[in-house]
Amino acid sequence: MTIELYRIDDRLIHGQVVVGWGQPLNIGFIALVDDDVASSDWEKELYRMGVPPGVELYFASVEEAAEAMQAWRRDQRPGILLTGDIETMRRLVVAVPDIPAVNVGGVHHRSGRAEKLRYVFLTSEEERGLRALQEGGVVVTAQDVPSARPLPLRELLDGGAQK
Amino acid sequence: MSETPIAIVLGHGRVAEGLVSAVERITGITGRFVALSNEGLGTAEIEELLRARLESTGARVVFTDLPAGSCNFAACRLLRGRPDIAVVTGVNLPALLHFATSGQAVGGAGERGESGSEPVEFRVAEEAAERGASSLRMLRGKPA
User: Fold this and answer.
1) pLDDT digits 0-9 by tens, A10-57
2) Quick one: what percent of chain A has pLDDT higher than 90?
3) Which among B45, B72, B76 has the least Cβ separation from residue A108?
4) Phi and psi dihedrals of A152, rounded to 5?
5) CA distance B72 to A33
6) Residues of B in contact with A19 (CB under 8 A)
7) Radius of gyration of chain B from its Cα atoms, rounded to whole angstroms
8) B89 to chain A: nearest residue by CA?
9) In terms of DSSP H, where are the helices of chain B?
10) How many whole angstroms separate alpha carbon B16 and alpha carbon B66?
11) Which helix H or strand E contains B25, and what residues bound it?
């Protein structure tokens, strides 16, 4: 399996992903799983422009990602899979039940969300979504950058032992 | 000397603030740039912040720091349907210094060039991008 990180991050591709995680993992590809992005040529072009040379970019809807997953995992290069929200990751886990762990990397402030960590704000429905992932056997942790301590879900929902 | 803002600098952490502060220290020209950070903001909020500042200042050029960064994606996303705006990615101090000093020729945001086809800032921004890129170099140490 060469998808090293399954990450929920509402900024999708950005500095923490490409540099913060991408450099130490020496990634060769990013799989961006988002129904809206996958159906927008403009968005795809935008992300293609920003990604450094040597990093291949795949765009997929949840349905397409489920079909492509085995091929991505057979890829010899390490990769990162991204979704922009918890619900998309939950749908992906339903379609691909053997996703072992999910990293919550950035869910930012929005009306109706409560602050859990500096970089994680959740609605009660999103909290339930994360609990459902964990109860389904997926290890859920929050960690924005590799040098930070991964916080288990319980600690994340408690607001972190050390914010 | 305080001027009308002619560009927005948008970056990670405090990079924009630091670069703008350095330009002001070096040139004595203040108020030419608006420094913005993506700190703690989601994609939609970065876009909203940038859109509001473009509107309030009339600036036509946005400098961003990292090509694969959320700041750059937010700025580039705003380009759709806005031919009056340009984005320069990979900003550094030499680029901003060029824009600040050459930009003195620009009377105000949105001023048109002689052809009237595009803002004068675009030409200056293009020069600034070239200046910034050519300023990156490496020298190796030599034996005494």
Assistant:
1) 999 999 999 999 999 999 999 999 999 999 999 999 999 889 999 999
2) 91
3) B45
4) -60, 160
5) 20
6) 66, 68
7) 15
8) A50
9) 15-27, 43-57, 70-77, 93-102, 120-135
10) 12
11) helix B15-27
State the residue range of the domain holding B97.
7-135
Q: Do A15 and B66 touch (CB under 8 A)?
A: yes
Output the domain CATH number for residue A153: 3.40.35.10
Question: What digits encode the pLDDT tens for the residues B28-87?
Answer: 999 999 999 999 898 889 999 999 999 999 999 999 999 999 999 999 999 988 999 999
Q: pLDDT: is A71 or B42 the higher one?
A: A71
Q: How far is CA A100 from the centre of its chain?
A: 13
Beta-bridge partner residues of A57: A30
* Cβ within 8 Å, pair B69-A14: yes
Task: Give tens-digit pLDDT for B91-132.
Answer: 999 999 999 998 655 555 445 455 556 788 899 999 999 999
Does B11 score more than 80 pLDDT?
yes
Measured between alpha carbons, how far is B88 from A123 in angstroms, rounded to an integer?
36
User: For residue B46, is it within any domain?
Assistant: yes
Q: Give the pTM.
A: 0.86
Do strands B7-11 and B33-37 pair parallel, antiparallel, or not at all (unpaired)? parallel
Q: How far apart are CA B85 and CA B82, in angstroms?
A: 6
CA A56/CA A27 separation, integer angstroms: 9
User: Does ipTM exceed 0.90?
Assistant: no
Specify the CATH number for the domain of residue B47.
3.40.50.510
Q: What is the pLDDT of chain A when averaged over all its residues?
A: 94
Q: What length is written for chain B?
A: 144
The answer to whether position A44 is within a domain reads no
- Note which residues in 102-121 of chain A have CB less than 8 A from chain B: 106-110, 118-119
Total CB pairs under 8 A between chain A and B: 59
- The answer to whether residue B142 is domain-embedded is no
C-beta atoms surrounding B127 within 10 Å: 14
3-state secondary structure of A102: strand
